Amino acid sequence: MITIALDAMGGDHGVGVTVPAALQTLSQEAALKVILVGQSDVLRKELTRLRAAENDRLSIHHASEVIAMDESPAQALRSKKDSSMRVAINLVKEGVAQAAVSAGNTGALMATARFVLKTLPGIDRPAIITTLPTTHGHVHVLDLGANVDCTPEQLVQFAMMGSILVSAVEGKDKPRVGLLNIGEEDIKGNDSVKKTNELLRATGLNYCGFVEGDEIYTGDMDVIVCDGFVGNVMLKTSEGLAQMITHFMKQEFKRNLLTKISAVIALPVLRAFRKRVDPRRYNGATLIGLNGTVIKSHGGADKLAFQCAILEALAEVKNNVPERIGRELAAMSARETLA
Amino acid sequence: MITIALDAMGGDHGVGVTVPAALQTLSQEAALKVILVGQSDVLRKELTRLRAAENDRLSIHHASEVIAMDESPAQALRSKKDSSMRVAINLVKEGVAQAAVSAGNTGALMATARFVLKTLPGIDRPAIITTLPTTHGHVHVLDLGANVDCTPEQLVQFAMMGSILVSAVEGKDKPRVGLLNIGEEDIKGNDSVKKTNELLRATGLNYCGFVEGDEIYTGDMDVIVCDGFVGNVMLKTSEGLAQMITHFMKQEFKRNLLTKISAVIALPVLRAFRKRVDPRRYNGATLIGLNGTVIKSHGGADKLAFQCAILEALAEVKNNVPERIGRELAAMSARETLA
Q: Can you give the CATH number for the domain in which B104 is found?
């Protein structure tokens, strides 16, 4: 049995999304227990509305405060010790839950998780890693915004963590690791990526060299590493471009009666297409490098998207991701000491 | 009459694209003269194949060498003094042509243009600026890869140049300028963007603060500024995502007989949609900040795309972009000296 603590108050939609998503996931996953963390009166009301109740796999854990989406992380960390987010992470620290999932304020989640759980030995700073679709399958990219300035040594740690995550969750033996740059030749890029490139060649990782931006969606890497500034811009640019494309396509299909009819005829295809690139199915970014599993859901997540984030937490706990990262990093540093 | 020198040998397709694009543009633009720069025998053969000949608006200027797409810029600059690219830019320097257009090696083009034409007074380094579609219209983004490390002062110069370009070509009085960051609050981002943010507030530009990645395609800025590393990753990521989306849509429409029929029915809509996001229509990035107009076409440009790059050159020459940038920068520095 795996227990997951949900920050039930977090996100743009709060309990209206987190509670239905929890119920749905519980009905599908027999080995899952969920603790809904938040204001107990609000949570009880939502359960009643959904004709559900606490049971041996679903419990409420009261937390009196809520962190706002635009609250400063430092402020939230200092003053809201009984927030749903903080209490959910505390439950992981205490071993009551094996993972925490939150759709709340990213900065506050990272600051709180780092403060409460601490980073794994050998890891300077945690990173945010997520899965993105590609023409051939999918790819894991980190960091997505936790670290605006990264040293080459930190980027190497990110590469190691990403590689171990993919090995653990997908059973791949030697995940292919690429370093994001603005050209594929060794002379391209800034000093930081050049130095990181050298360091990565000296690791035991299956490091495949530089990749350019277009290879995120069309390449064949398992893990792509970049600093959090570049990763965040890349991810949000992708969101914006997808929105624009959807907007234009809707406009064209709504132009007149004829185009509306063709939209109806093309609907099954458009649905199948949308399902393949549906960002909700890729929801759930991991705060990687911590003593424990913490998953960040998109703030605007709906029920399906939030379910995907819970399932990501479940997969990582099942596969002991933090333990494996800790163990393999210790083994690496032991090898280096011997060498 | 405006004369444009084409690096007719550059790009993945060379004369097979540059020459037909030149002929087509000449037939549409009565006030345009084109000089095809490259190996005269190859160019003459291509003209013959297209049943065209030199005339008072179309001439051939021989250049014996060609720069390969993967050649080192330093090497190309040092050893290929008679390359089609170098000679085309020389013609701008000599005043024979008012602009040069090339689909060749970006690094070599930037190095050569900078060496031959020099930067405008007050500009440390040229940048690459291009137009991207948005839900509301379009936006100009720079730098796209000429400068991997930028100082805040250089980013401010980029903002000024972008703003002047939009004023000149689009007749906008006070173009809205945004600075790309990973959040909109003043505390977000790395030291470089924070410092640039402060400097931009002190300029006379219509500076609107930080914008996030998604606002490139969905926001309402006229100019978005970023360093060349971030800009290049952003642009190439967009290319990759668009490719992936196209790939999935084609796959879904080709799945079976029924989906193929719906594709035929939806074809007019799909065509109209494609036209709106067609990257060929946005082809033609400007090397901005030089004493002269140099336009970089995508290496893989086809005839339509290369035509768009020629038209971009024409628009910038008509609107005296380099002169206006030079004049306005001089005025700004005079104001600062007086203040």
A: 3.40.718.10
- A113 vs B263: which has the higher pLDDT: A113
Best to test chain B binding among A148, A187, A221, A243 (most B CBs inside 10 Å):
A148
Helix axes B257-277, A257-277, angle to 10 degrees: 100
pLDDT tops 60 at residue B339 = no
Same domain flag for B156 and B107 = no
Percentage of residues in chain B having pLDDT higher than 90: 76
CB contact under 8 A, B244 and A217: yes
Q: Are residues B129 and B256 in the same domain?
A: yes
Domain interval for residue B160: 124-281
Regarding whether A307 and A186 lie in a shared domain, the answer is no
Contacts of A234 in chain B (CB under 8 A): 213, 233-234, 237
Predicted local distance difference test score (pLDDT) of residue B336: 66
Strand partners, A178: A224
Asked if B252 is an interface residue toward chain A (Cβ–Cβ < 8 A), one would say yes
**Structure confidence by residue, pLDDT tens digits, B187-224:** 788 889 999 999 999 998 999 999 999 999 999 999 99
Contact of B228 with chain A, judged by CB distance below 8 Å, is answered with yes
3-state secondary structure of A97: coil
Contacts of A36 by beta carbon, 8 Å cutoff, 6+ apart: A6, A8, A18, A19, A22, A43, A58, A59, A60, A61
A257 to chain B, any CB pair closer than 8 A? The answer is no
Is any Cβ of chain B less than 8 angstroms from the Cβ of A242? yes
Burial class (CB in 10 A: 0-12, 13-18, 19+), A156: buried
ipTM value greater than 0.85: yes
What tokens does B81 get?
A: 């003094």
Let me know whether B307 and B248 are in one domain.
no
Residues B129 and B275 in one domain: yes
Nearest CA in chain B to A245: B277
Query: Any chain A CB within 8 A of the CB of B246?
Result: no
For residue B225, list its beta bridge partners.
B142, B179
Residues A128 and A115 in one domain: no
Same domain, B273 and B311: no
Residues 24-53 of B with CB under 8 A from A: none
Distance from CA of B318 to the nearest CA of A (A): 31
Q: φ, ψ for residue B313 (rounded to 5)?
A: -60, -45
- Count up the domains in chain A and report the number: 2
Q: Is B236 on the interface with A (CB under 8 A)?
A: yes
pLDDT in tens, A76-112: 999 999 999 999 999 999 999 999 999 999 999 999 9
